[in-house]
Write a structure and sequence with these properties.
Layout lengths: L5 E4 L9 E5 L10 E4 L2 H9 L9 H19 L3 H12 L7 H9 L7 H33 L5 E5 L14 H10 L3 E7 L6 H12 L4 E4 L4 H6 L5 E4 L3 E3 L4 E4 L2 H11 L3 E4 L5 E2 L16 H4 E2 L2 E2 L12 E4 L6 E4 L2 E3 L15
Parallel strand pairs: 4-5, 4-7, 5-6, 7-10, 8-11, 10-15
Antiparallel strand pairs: 1-2, 2-3, 8-9, 9-14, 12-13, 15-16
Helix pairs in contact: 2-3, 2-4, 2-5, 3-4, 5-6
């Protein structure tokens, strides 16, 4: 955990009141560069191009983004209607992940109390995210170790759900980190996660930084790795979890879930409770964000497909609850594949 995805820097900003500081994840692993965000336009752009990303990180970014909007409003002389519209822009920057809107909605009612109240609430939200991630990682590790009869586990991951995707610690990669700390982790297979390679660029970077044994594999190898008996479980994050336990996550997760179901090994989803959207009854109603096709048919600005061939680029897919062995949140572990619903067991905790 040598780097954090985001923080509020009290020494930054044009007026000395501080600014949101983001690690630009589009440049990793080759370049470590921070963005100082002083305008709503810059924050929305950073969210859309995935300079800051990961469902658990976005509520902190969104909450601190409300402070960015308030500071810009003070500098530019916006009225209340303009400020509210700019806050909504931050809230709606990524439609599939529910956490971003949740973070903005948590602090926006405090705007009449002033920016210090909003900033304090945003910082508290980030601290709570780290605590939640550590707790859900502990609970998930306990659940896995109680069900997988091996001294050390072999784990498959998809996309990045580590420190870089959260305020701190990580969700799916937090579970990996917890197993490693207990001496119960043997090896990690990290899917590269096309087309933006979050697994190859970010997950592998985090694993290497902590000395965790791992290899990067192409997404197309995941099902074979599972069915050949090379892993004991798959652990992934989530961008939204419906009330019935359907899980929206990075595209490719569904294929991992299908392979795990066929092989009889658990697919465990690790996510904070803020990722659970009880207002969404099932995965079929989740809006799936489509990103620019150029991300699929180009690599580093070089065309890799015929110019006449467009790219199809859904950012997420939905894994049905019947393929999800467990969902671990800081409130406990539910088993959707066994019929447990997110809105029926832990909602009152």
């Amino acid at each position: 955990m040598s780097l954090l995805a985001l923080t509020w820097d009290d020494a930054a900003g044009p007026d000395g009141r501080g600014a949101l500081r983001l690690l630009d994840q589009t440049l990793l692993p080759l370049t470590t560069e921070y963005l100082v965000v002083e305008r709503v336009d810059d924050l929305v752009g950073a969210i859309e191009r995935l300079a800051v990303r990961g469902a658990p990180a976005t509520p902190s970014a969104g909450a601190m983004g409300v402070v960015v909007a308030m500071d810009e409003a003070a500098r530019e002389g916006w009225d209340e209607a303009r400020l509210a519209a700019e806050v909504r822009r931050v809230r709606d920057a990524r439609p599939t992940a529910v956490n971003l809107a949740w973070g903005v909605d948590r602090v926006a009612p405090l705007v009449p109390q002033g920016r210090d109240a909003v900033l304090a609430a945003a910082r508290q939200l980030a601290a709570e995210d780290e605590a939640a991630n550590r707790e859900l990682s502990r609970l998930a590790a306990d659940w896995l170790l109680a069900r997988v009869d091996r001294p050390r586990l072999r784990v498959l991951t998809h996309c990045n759900a580590g420190v870089l995707a959260t305020s701190a610690w990580g969700t799916a990669l937090g579970v990996v980190r917890e197993l490693h700390a207990r001496g119960r982790l043997e090896f990690v297979y990290a899917d590269e996660t096309r087309p933006l390679l979050q697994g190859a660029r970010l997950t592998a970077w985090e694993l290497a930084d902590e000395g965790i044994p791992h290899a990067v594999q192409v997404d197309g190898a995941a099902a074979s790795t599972v069915l050949r008996g090379m892993v004991d479980c798959a652990v992934v994050g989530a961008d939204r979890i419906a009330a019935n336990g359907d899980v929206a996550n990075k595209v490719g997760t569904l294929g991992v879930g299908l392979a795990c179901r066929e092989a009889g090994i658990p697919l465990l989803v690790a996510a904070p409770w803020s990722t659970v959207d009880l207002a969404t009854p099932e995965g079929a109603t989740i809006e799936i964000e489509e990103r620019p096709g150029e991300e699929v048919v180009e690599f580093a600005g070089t065309r890799t497909a015929p110019f006449a061939s467009p790219g199809y680029n859904p950012a997420f897919d939905v894994t049905p609850a019947r393929f999800v062995a467990a969902v671990a949140t800081e409130r406990g572990v539910l088993e959707p594949a066994a019929g447990q619903r997110m809105d029926g067991v832990l909602t009152g905790s």
